[in-house]
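We were asked to recover a plausible sequence for a given structure. The inputs and outputs are reproduced exactly as logged, with field labels preserved.

PROBLEM: sequence recovery
POSITIONS: 142
GIVEN STRUCTURE:
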């Protein structure tokens, strides 16, 4: 597997290879290497579907590294620009998680309420909103 991860990072390589490499690094908790592969995709093909998927992965890596404020940038770009409903929903869920961590539950609630039932089950959506409202009540009680 190590040999596969040392594949050339030349811009001539297929972006899908970088994506798979980034995912492998992520699974191995090699965040820096994973981030590098996903950033290559974003720089090379910024408006491509694969780049939006890579931005979501970068946002997730930022969250894992405790950089929730930074993650917002990546998730927002995908949420605003992608035509892919799956990528947009994933970006919205990432934004919700970061807003929650940053103790901005009002923003997280508003975003959760805006997600269509077509992309997130009503039961799951209600569960998220309930959790966020509980956090909001807790923060207001402090």
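RECOVERED SEQUENCE:
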């Amino acid at each position: 597997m190590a040999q596969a991860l040392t594949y050339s990072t030349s811009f001539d390589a297929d972006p899908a290879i970088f994506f798979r490499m980034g995912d492998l690094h992520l699974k191995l908790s090699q965040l820096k290497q994973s981030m590098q592969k996903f950033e290559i995709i974003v720089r090379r093909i910024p408006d491509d579907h694969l780049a939006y998927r890579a931005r979501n992965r970068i946002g997730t890596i930022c969250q894992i590294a405790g950089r929730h404020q930074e993650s917002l940038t990546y998730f927002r770009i995908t949420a605003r620009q992608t035509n892919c409903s799956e990528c947009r929903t994933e970006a919205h869920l990432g934004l919700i998680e970061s807003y929650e961590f940053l103790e901005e539950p009002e923003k997280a609630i508003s975003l959760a309420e805006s997600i269509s039932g077509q992309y997130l089950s009503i039961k799951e959506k209600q569960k998220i909103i309930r959790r966020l409202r509980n956090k909001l009540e807790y923060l207001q009680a402090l």
